[in-house]
């Protein structure tokens, strides 16, 4: 019985003029384009410098800013009001004002203070720009002191980024993008497939046959399980070929988690479909949950920085566990033993959602 | 007579709307039983109750001796159902649809091919065509094949000829005739009164209730009043004038003519004379036998 249903699902999927292409184009698109654009690395911060000092120190500082990839030096002026105008018109993100007598003040007991004004509308850019500028300022001063023969301050801090040594944001995002792929394909497609059977009325015919609701639902789940497998493989290959990123941990650990996760998502999609009578309704409900999944499960922003009530909610979001697994296996080489808790959570979600999916599918209208 | 379908006091409500109001009837084995009634009469709801897709709010029904609520599994194995709207997979071919539905019932197409052969032969030239691209009549034939492929003992056909051209409709009824000879019980619904005459027995259904059950001849025989066909110029004015004439109980449009039900003591010649006095010329009035639609109109008014 299941074989017959599976054959039919595959035939329908392959015969659809749109779905097979979508299942190929979507992962390629996501893996080729999104890693470049979903970056939180802040670069090219527009800086306007108000130089009232006009000394070697201020000139050195300005040339450092101009040389760095992190900044774009917009203007050097002695008019603070004009620089603020540039800030307001968004030509500059940060204004650095070097006061008159700044260099002189450095060697005195009462140093003059440089001031930094940042545009807070884009909070990330503003705060990071401020931090970068502080660092640049301090580094330049230390450098100048060293050149003048003063003893360099001993290095007290050594920073080493483990697992992602260059803090490459792409490496952090690529596993997350694979998850977004599986959320969308694994969740939407089964939901739409099932609601489509309702809309075309075929389900009414199926319901007056001896087919059990379990095998009918299962056939759809298996189809999307296999599609999930293909899509993930494609994404892993692209990450390797295009970005040279290979999982540090075992590929098997990634596949196991992915297969569990696709089951979770497609079970969820079937539940939504069981309560929807039109495709429009199903899409809308799915979209609502997918938004929550993507924004709240640590995919884009760390869970630890969410308010505690939101952190509690994340425990009920299956992608949360999958994201932990993917990043840990991909970047740290974590093993099944380290992550058994996340795997168990995913397996539990898969069991609950799929049982609910089979139970909420009513053969009586 | 052994009963294939029994319904007793079947009632189904959707919120405040009563779709079926304590409907009772029985269909004998091997009978071709027609449900005749306009759209919204409750025909599809009755089909869904009998095919176990819905549970009744009151009353109970048996199909092939099995209760539609308790033994729904047994019923699903032994009935064939053709829903009101086309419900095969439009993206699968004719052949694939047939194979699929056969496999769902655990049978092979060739085992029961003899049953569907006369129908399938007509669509066989298109067997690789997708079901969604068939014409309306072809779709119905394929749907009938799919409903028959597991050799059901009872066949439920919900408005199989709606939206099908006159020639295909006729062919379809010939197929049902053929199936009756093979001993398959069929419950078929239609909004077309002219198709009622092809059933063994019919139930007239309107506004959630059954108005009457009898053979088509028996139903017609219930009409015991003199009936005339009236025609002439200016048909609409003629209708209004006829309704006001003495001795006329009822007059209603019926295709190209008006049907007129007379009271006792009605004289056709006087009637034509009266109309001529009102300026109606070339008025023709012939006594005619009642059709099922006349009975339907009468029962409907009687019910109100």
List keywords for this structure.
heterodimer, A: 365 residues, alpha/beta, abc type-2 transporter like fold, four-stranded mixed sheet, 14 helices, 4 strands, 65% helix, elongated, B: 304 residues, Rossmann fold, Alpha-Beta Plaits, 2 domains, six-stranded mixed sheet, four-stranded antiparallel sheet, 10 helices, 14 strands
Number of domains as seen in the coordinates of chain B: 2
In the CATH scheme, the class of the largest domain in chain B would be: Alpha Beta
Uncertain stretches of 5 or more adjacent residues of chain B: none
Helix content of chain A: 55-70%
Strand order of the largest sheet of chain A: 2-1-3-4
Summarize the main sheet of chain A.
Answer: 4 strands, mixed
The count of helical stretches of chain A stands at 14
What is the level-2 CATH architecture name of the largest domain in chain B? 3-Layer(aba) Sandwich
* Adjacency order of strands in the biggest sheet of chain B: 6-7-8-3-9-10
DSSP helix fraction of chain B: 25-40%
The biggest beta sheet of chain B is recorded as: 6 strands, mixed
Please sum up the structure shown.
The complex is a heterodimer of chains A (365) and B (304). The model of chain A has no long low-confidence stretch (mean pLDDT 87).
Topology:
The complex is a heterodimer of chains A (365) and B (304).
Chain A: H1 2-15, H2 19-37, E1 45-51, H3 56-67, E2 71-77, H4 80-88, E3 94-98, H5 102-106, E4 115-118, H6 123-147, H7 169-200, H8 202-207, H9 213-243, H10 251-274, H11 279-296, H12 308-314, H13 318-332, H14 340-360
Parallel strand pairs in A: 1-2, 1-3
Antiparallel strand pairs in A: 3-4
Chain B: E1 3-14, E2 17-28, E3 32-36, H1 43-50, E4 58-63, E5 66-67, H2 72-78, E6 79-82, H3 94-104, H4 113-123, H5 136-148, E7 154-157, H6 166-181, E8 185-190, E9 201-206, E10 209-214, H7 216-221, E11 227-231, H8 235-244, E12 248-254, E13 257-262, H9 268-277, E14 284-287, H10 292-303
Helix pairs in contact in B: 3-5, 4-5
């Amino acid at each position: 019985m299941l074989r017959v249903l599976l054959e039919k699902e595959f035939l329908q999927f392959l015969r659809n003029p749109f779905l097979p292409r979508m299942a190929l184009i979507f992962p390629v698109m996501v893996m080729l384009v999104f890693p470049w654009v979903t970056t939180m690395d802040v670069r090219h911060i527009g800086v306007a410098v108000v130089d009232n000092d006009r000394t070697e120190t201020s000139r050195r500082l300005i040339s450092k800013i101009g040389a760095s990839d992190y900044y774009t030096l917009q203007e050097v002026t002695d008019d603070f009001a004009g620089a603020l105008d540039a800030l307001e018109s968004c030509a500059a993100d940060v204004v650095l004002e070097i006061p008159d007598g700044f260099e002189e003040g450095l060697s005195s007991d009462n140093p003059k203070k440089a001031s930094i004004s940042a545009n807070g509308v884009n909070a990330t850019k503003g705060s990071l720009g401020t931090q970068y500028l502080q660092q640049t300022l301090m580094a330049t001063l230390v450098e100048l002191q060293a050149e003048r023969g003063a003893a360099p301050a001993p290095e007290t801090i050594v920073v080493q980024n483990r697992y992602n040594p260059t803090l490459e944001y792409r490496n952090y995002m690529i596993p997350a993008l694979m998850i977004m792929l599986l959320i969308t394909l694994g969740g939407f497609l089964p939901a739409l497939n099932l609601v489509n059977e309702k809309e075309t009325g075929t389900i009414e015919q199926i319901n007056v046959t001896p087919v059990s609701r379990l095998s009918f639902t299962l056939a759809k789940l298996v189809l999307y399980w296999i599609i999930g497998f293909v899509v993930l493989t494609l994404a892993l290959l692209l990450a390797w070929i295009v970005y040279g990123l290979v999982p540090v941990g075992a590929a098997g650990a990634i596949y196991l988690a992915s297969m569990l996760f696709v089951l979770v998502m497609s079970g969820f999609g079937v539940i939504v479909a069981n309560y929807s009578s039109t495709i429009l309704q199903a899409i809308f409900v799915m979209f609502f949950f997918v938004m929550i999944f993507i924004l709240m499960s640590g995919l884009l922003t760390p869970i630890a920085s969410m308010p505690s009530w939101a952190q509690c909610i994340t425990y009920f979001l299956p992608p949360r566990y999958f994201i932990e697994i993917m990043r840990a296996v991909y970047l740290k080489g974590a093993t099944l033993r380290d992550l058994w808790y996340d795997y168990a959570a995913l397996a539990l979600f898969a069991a609950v959602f799929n049982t609910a999916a089979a139970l909420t599918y009513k053969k009586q209208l | 007579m052994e009963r294939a379908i029994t319904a007793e006091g079947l009632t189904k409500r959707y919120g405040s709307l009563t779709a079926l109001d304590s409907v009772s009837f029985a269909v004998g084995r091997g009978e071709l039983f027609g449900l005749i009634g306009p759209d919204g009469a409750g025909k599809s709801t009755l089909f869904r109750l009998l095919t176990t897709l819905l549970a009744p709010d009151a009353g109970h029904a048996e199909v092939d001796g099995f209760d539609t609520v308790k033994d729904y599994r047994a019923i699903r194995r032994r009935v064939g159902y053709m829903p009101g709207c086309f419900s095969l997979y439009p993206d699968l071919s004719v052949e694939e649809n047939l194979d699929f539905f056969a496999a769902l019932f655990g049978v092979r197409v060739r085992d029961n091919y003899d049953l569907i052969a006369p129908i399938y032969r007509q669509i066989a030239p298109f067997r690789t065509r997708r079901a969604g691209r068939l014409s309306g009549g072809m779709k119905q034939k394929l749907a009938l094949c799919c409903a028959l492929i597991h050799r059901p003992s009872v066949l439920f056909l919900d408005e199989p000829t709606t939206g099908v051209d006159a020639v295909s409709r006729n062919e379809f009824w010939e197929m049902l005739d053929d199936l009756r000879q093979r001993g398959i019980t069929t419950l078929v619904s239609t909004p077309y009164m002219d198709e009622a005459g092809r059933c063994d027995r019919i139930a007239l259904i309107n506004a959630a209730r059954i108005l009457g059950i009898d053979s088509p001849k028996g139903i017609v025989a219930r009409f015991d009043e003199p009936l005339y066909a009236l025609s002439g110029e200016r048909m609409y004015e003629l209708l209004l004038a006829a309704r006001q004439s003495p001795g006329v109980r009822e007059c209603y449009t019926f295709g190209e003519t008006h049907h007129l039900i007379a009271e006792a003591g009605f004289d056709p010649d006087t009637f034509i004379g009266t109309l001529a006095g009102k300026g109606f010329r070339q008025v023709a009035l012939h006594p005619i036998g009642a059709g099922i639609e006349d009975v339907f109109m009468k029962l409907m008014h009687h019910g109100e």
